[in-house]
Amino acid sequence: MIKAVIFDFDGVVVNSEPLHRQAERQALLRCGLRINDTELEQYRDCMDEYMFGELIKKYALRCTIEHLYAEKMKIYRSLMDARAPVIDGVPKLIEKLKAKKLKIALTTRSPADVVLPLLKKYKLYQHFDAIVTANDITQCNPSSEVYTRAASRLGVKPEQCVVVEDCGIAIDAVKKLGMYCIGFKNLHTGNEDLSNADFIIASIRDTPMQKFVDIDQRKRKKVLA
Fold it and tell me: What pLDDT, on the 0 to 100 scale, is given for residue 118?
């Protein structure tokens, strides 16, 4: 029986992935490196500190990890304040799930001081029973740490959770835990392989709420809604 739904933040709740790439490009340009999104995508699911450390070594940049991270976050916060759009249909879906007495969690590899103000701004914060941010974890994808922490804070077993994710390797991590996973095909995220998800959707707004909770564990199949 499903007791909880766990939402990824970047790319599922807020369409922030393009803003991450823009902030990273601008921060690196200030240190003398012009880089394209194709190369940045290789580090999409890693901690920023790891990505910047690798790029500093690869291109012999005369910047520190701390400096690049601070520059990126300053630019990113500015972009998020001005342009961060909530994914269409997410607020309504969360309200419906809460009305069904399901527990709701948010997971993100972004820092708390970026995520929490946005959740409050869009009046979503109060709906989450647990929020796990970059401040709470030590590993990036394909680690399952962020999901195990969310389930633990909700007080539910992994097999009682549905995770909504837009990232292929994150979906792989979810499945290894025995969690049910819905893959969200976000066109702004990139060409992600969501094939390991139990169910794939192209729109949160147009997917009936019951598809998120009425799950026959014995007859899972992949469907594009």
Answer: 87
**Per-residue confidence band for 85, with pLDDT thresholds at 50, 70 and 90:** confident
Residues 50 and 97 in one domain: no
Query: Is 215:162 a contact under the CB 8 Å cutoff?
Result: yes
Q: Would residue 104 count as lying in a domain?
A: yes
- Can you give the residue range of the structural domain that contains 75? 17-83
Q: Give the contacts of 1 (CB within 8 A, at least 6 positions apart).
A: 160
> b/e for 109-118, b at 16 or more Cβ within 10 A?
bbbeebbeeb
- Rounded Cα gap, residues 73 and 52, in angstroms: 13
Claim to verify: residue 104 and residue 37 sit in the same structural domain:
no
Q: Which of 56, 83, 110 is the last residue of a domain?
A: 83
pLDDT, tens only, 167-216: 898 999 999 999 999 999 987 776 788 999 998 999 999 988 888 877 65
Residue pair 24/46 in contact by the 8 Å Cβ criterion: no
The helices-and-strands tally (H runs, E runs) of the chain is 9, 6
Give CA–CA dist 43/49, Å, rounded.
10
Query: What is the value of pTM for the model shown?
Result: 0.86
- The three state secondary structure string of 48-111 is HHHHHHHHHHHHCCCCCHHHHHHHHHHHHHHHHHHHCCECCCHHHHHHHHHHCCCEEEEECCCC
Q: How far apart are CA 219 and CA 207, in angstroms?
A: 19
* Cβ-contact 88, 116 below 8 angstroms: no
Please count the structural domains in the chain: 2
